[in-house]
Amino acid sequence: MEFLVTNFEAILFYLVAALTVAAGVGVIALKSPVHSALSLLSTFLMVAVLFVIRHAEFLAAVQVLVYAGGIMVLFLFVIMLVNVKGVRPEAAFLTRWAPLAIAGGVLIGVLLALLVLLGVLATGSADASALQAVDGQPAGNTEAVGITLYTTYLVPFEIVSVVLLVAMIAAIIFGRRDAGLERPEGEARP
Amino acid sequence: MITATHYVMLSLVLFALGVIGVMMRRNFITVLMSLELIFNAVNLNLVAFSYRLGDLAGQILAIFVITIAAAEAAIGLGLIIALVRLKDTVALDEASEMRS
User: Fold this and answer.
1) Element (H, E) at A137
2) Higher pLDDT, A76 or A137
3) How far is CA B96 from CA A183, B87, B92, B100, in A?
4) Confidence band (pLDDT; 50, 70, 90) for B95?
5) Element (H, E) at A138
6) What is the phi-psi region of residue B89: left when phi exceeds 0, alpha when psi lies from -120 to 50, beta otherwise?
7) B97/A contact by beta carbon, under 8 A
8) What is the three-class DSSP state of A134?
């Protein structure tokens, strides 16, 4: 029992990390897009738990609301909308490229990890209390994130809002029927 | 004791899974989902180092990443709708007009 209490963080991390990786494998290995989407949903929720362990409570809430709530609904909506008959299940993978894809994925991952581990060795001390403080005074993580976002990072914040506007306009244009993306008249459906 | 290294390793695995998914799947929708996996791997790194360094900047950047991921999902899914209207399929190798 004492072992559980003293190692609670480690046990939680390994459990959630294993579930995250399992769900991630599910996303790329399951054949039905709906199953992939549900697997992706569990990945998002597990990552939210990992955020909480690292004192990013606000970010965990955003992860659940925006990813698990918004983006997943968008994905499922599109899956239902297009009612896919396009990809036959037995042809879901480009198996020709499998060795190259796996080698490439692992190589990119290892290179990034090396880069980041250099950062671990090079940089300073851990002080998690700064994640929950405003001007040195203790406060909630949400308040700290909000104050920082609307003061130090105000300009990037405004730029990102413009990016969102552009994305919204682009999505509307793509979705219009008269966007010039229709099949020409009289051409047979493939 | 869980360190930033643990998080980097987990993030590595998620990132590699995402890259493999992007390169191997033929279904456009699943490719977009693999992209979301990559975004999540990046966010894990950012949050882990925000904790490691006691600096909120990592969490702020993660919020921006989530925002851009939402924009990307909206555009990507719009592209899927357009592709389905044009080709009646979501298989990426069917969209080969620009191949010489």
Assistant:
1) strand A137-138
2) A76
3) 15, 11, 8, 9
4) confident
5) strand A137-138
6) beta
7) no
8) strand
- The ipTM value here is 0.91
Q: How far is B13 from chain A (nearest CA, A)?
A: 7
Give which of B70, B33, B15 is closest to A63, Cα–Cα: B70
CB contact under 8 A, B23 and A97: yes
DSSP-based three-state secondary structure for A7: coil
Q: Give the B window 33-92 contacts with A, CB below 8 Å.
A: 33-34, 36-37, 40, 43-45, 47-57, 59-60, 62-64, 66-75, 77-82, 84-91
**Alpha-carbon separation of residue A154 from A136, A146, B55, B77, B89 (angstroms):** 20, 10, 17, 29, 42
Per-residue pLDDT of A157-186, as tens digits, reads 999 999 999 999 998 888 887 655 555 555
pLDDT digits over B57-85, tens only?
A: 889 999 999 999 999 999 999 888 888 88
Average pLDDT over residues A73-78: 90
Verify whether the Cβ–Cβ distance A10 to B81 is below 8 Å. Answer: no
